[in-house]
Structure formats: structure tokens, C-alpha cells
């Protein structure tokens, strides 16, 4: 028996409360609004809702500056509303994941306040200090261009404190056992409130946080093991999903050699090379990163995404590849950010071209791992480049053509909804797309359903099949199932021969899941198919219905339709 773990065959949907739906008219989305849209999410096929930070916070970094880990920002609701929300998800068979920011707190957090007030306080050692300005104070900023140092002098503390991110986000001293026990308690608390998982923010910085022993990250890695051990003791199916933009070869340290650290990691190398493939039609670097992402411990899993709430970070691509992505998707300076990324949403990056959007989504959904969707991408929302930095892609969800896109009746919404142009809410909204049979929303829903019917994608092993550089052809196997996914990145039609699939296919047909047409192998066991420009096809050997255990494959069964 191979155990099927929930996070290996689910769809994660990420959203920020403030921009989803406002239920009380103050212009700010809230738990009341989210509750009203759970049926929408369930209908879309979402298995887990990842809610971005909702704690009390000065909100100078969209809530990633936490002032109270045990609270709910009153603008979003109460702790009672939160538990109503986790309960309502559970009754619909959905799980809740939440952001957990462990690398730093807000400078308004009582720990930091106590630390600067009193050098003798036990909270002083919760943070990282220096008496003199460190020489490297102007190096290693995460937000170059808007952040100018990693050490800031606190007049009250009469000392310098370390912050990898903005100066209002002092880094916690993870090496301090007292800090570790506080953080474990926070995990335990939210598990009791009904969450099934955490998206762990900024993990590489957490690991490197111990400036005093920079070469020895082991204590911090061991913390990853402890945090998992605690969560699984408290709640067996709890998972951690790490945000860590690092080379694939380093990832094993985050998963743990024996799979005893974090369960899931976002696959940033695949994300960056996937955008390069879309920009250049060359799938070579993507194939390399896929090959480098193999051989995980049994419980480990990749999470795949196209866009997230931050800039599209292409900082790890070689210069020529990065230049190609900038040229294709973010050629103008105001589209770029932090010298490494593009602050646009997916649809405008792809010129609103429905074929390219489908291609991109289809590629992402067929990567080996669990897909993560960003709110609004299911309807092809745009961005507002007049908003500062990453805000451009954080505009309110567009529910309808009504005032503020149906997001809020307020005159002063938290961020202005996109009201004009091809991505304005009058044109791009849920209500309209619900009514159009062929809309992106309905396409996405069908694709998500199909994705979930193919557990080999989340659980199985993959082979990259021989194909020209502008085509990605992948085969997945899991238990008795075998499927093949082909993507043509070029703008020309192509004839493709799929040679000899890895398993003995006993002359069975490949059934296209979009059309229900089948392709029979020739005498050598090769399958001939045609891909349209920017075309993609999903196949299951024998079709989806054929795989009832114990059934003899019936090669010559006619297909209906
Ligand atoms: C992560 C988040 C980002 C935030 C940063 C600091 O990178 O994704 O939005 O600004 O951490 O917490
Ligand atoms: Ca509200």
C-alpha cells in the first residue's frame, strides 16, 4: 500500500483577506466575506485555502510584520470568526493553511518593545544585537532599492539590531531555546484553532538567522525537525510548506534526509525556468531543474505555482535567461522590482492571450507536485502598476461588474479595484465568467477536476520523454496508472511521436482527456500526435475509467462520442 497523503493531491488557493470580500462595508475584506465565498472555492475544486497573515500588525509589509501571533487583526474579525472559518472549511472537506512568520516580528511586537526598553529583559536575547555598526550593514538586503541596510540603531536599546527584511522587522534569534519554545507554542495554538498546515515564511533567512554562528546552521535546521515533530504529535495530518528560493540541491536539508523536517517546499527553480520556457520557447533549463528536483524522501512534496503575492523573482536565472524573461514579460522599468523581479500578474504578462494562459496553467498543473493558485488568476485578473511595489498585484478580487467589482460597497476600498481597460472589473469578473461556458473560470474548474483525478501527478514518478526543445513531454506513473502530458511552447503546429512509454503498455491507447479521443500505438509501440501552436494535451493510458483494479485492459473497446 502506498499511503495517499492529502497534501500530495490537493489544490491550494492563496488569498489575502483584505482584498477578497468585504462583508461589513468598511472597505477591507474580512473573514465574514471569505465565509461567503467558501462555496465558490469548493466549486472551483480548491482543497486547501492558504490565508496570508491576519494577525494584529502595523501592516507595513502586508501583515508580514506580526505584532501579536495569538490574535486576529480586528479589521478582519475575531478569533471566533476564525474558528467559524476553519469549521466551515472542514464541513466542505477543505483545509486551512496559514502563513507563519518566524524569521522576524514587527518592531511593535511586545517582545521587541521589552527588548529595547530593558537590556536585562529576557526578551533582549530574542533578537540579534551589535554594539557597533557592523561592517556589512549595507549588504544582503532583501529589498534592494527600498531598503538600505540590514542593521539599524535603536536609540532606546542603544544598540544595533539585525533585520534581513525592512527595519521594522527585527530578526528573531532562532538559536535561543526560549525563542524556539515560544514559536512552538504558536504552532500548537493555531493547530487547536483548526488549521492543517502552515506556509513558513522566509525559511532560508530563518536558518541563517544566527549571525553569531553563521557557519553552523544545524541548530536552526534542527528547529525545523522539532516544529514538525510537535505539529504531528498534536495533529497527525498537519503540514509545513516552506517558502525558500534556493537551488534544488540545497532543498534536501529543508526536507531532511529522512524526511523528518518540512513536508513541502515551493519549487522556485522550476517556477523561474518555466517562465523562461514561456519567454523563449526553450524547455531545456526547465527540464534540468525538474531532473534536479527528483529523489525526495517519501513524505516530501513540491508545491508549484505561476505567480504569487510577491514579485516574480527571476534572480536565480543566468543573466541571459533573466534578460529574456524581462524582455518578454516585464520590459519596462516600472514593471520590474528589486533588481530581480517582475511585479505583474500572470494575465497581463502573457498579453491576455488565452492560449498562452492555458498553456502556462496546464504546464504548472502537470508539474510533479501540488499546484498553488493565486486568487484572481482563475479569471485572469490584471495588475495596477500605479500602485507601489508589490501592491500592483494585490488589487481586490473582481466578483462582478457592480461597484468596486462587487468587492465592497465602500467609497474607500483598501486598494483601488481595477476599473478600467481590458482587465477592469466590468470586463473581468466572476459573475460574467460563471455565465460563459468557455470562460477561463470554467476552463480552470474543469482542469482542476481533471488534475485531481490524476493522482500520479502528485504521488507518482516522472520521466521526461524525448521531444524537441520547444516541446515538453512528460510521463507519470503511479500504481497502475500512467499518463502523458505534452506542451508545445512554439507558435507552430507540430507532429510529435511519443516513443515507447516506460511501462509495458500492452498496445493500449492513450486517451486524450480533453477530447476523449484515443491514439493507438503503431507496431513499435509509438504514438503519433499533433499539437497546435501553444497547444497542450493530457493523456491517460487506457482512459480514466479503465483503471478499476483487477480489470484486464481492453485494448479494442470502442470509445463513445
Ligand atoms: C516573504 C513574503 C513577503 C514578505 C517577506 C517578509 O518573502 O512572501 O511577502 O514581505 O517574506 O516577511
Ligand atoms: Ca470589512
Give the topology.
Layout: E1 12-15, H1 31-36, H2 38-44, E2 48-51, H3 79-91, E3 95-100, H4 110-117, E4 129-130, E5 151-154, E6 159-162, H5 177-192, E7 197-200, H6 203-207, H7 218-234, E8 239-242, H8 251-255, E9 264-266, H9 268-280, H10 284-292, E10 301-305, E11 312-313, H11 319-329, E12 336-337, E13 341-342, H12 346-349, H13 354-365, E14 370-374, H14 430-435, H15 440-452, H16 455-459, E15 461-464, E16 471-478, E17 481-488, E18 494-498, E19 510-512, E20 518-519, E21 527-531, E22 536-541
Bound molecules: alpha-D-glucopyranose (GLC) and calcium ion (CA).
Strand order of the largest sheet: 1-2-3-7-8-9-10-14
Helix content: 25-40%
CATH fold description of the largest domain: TIM Barrel
Which CATH architecture of the largest domain?
A: Alpha-Beta Barrel
What is the count of structural domains?
3
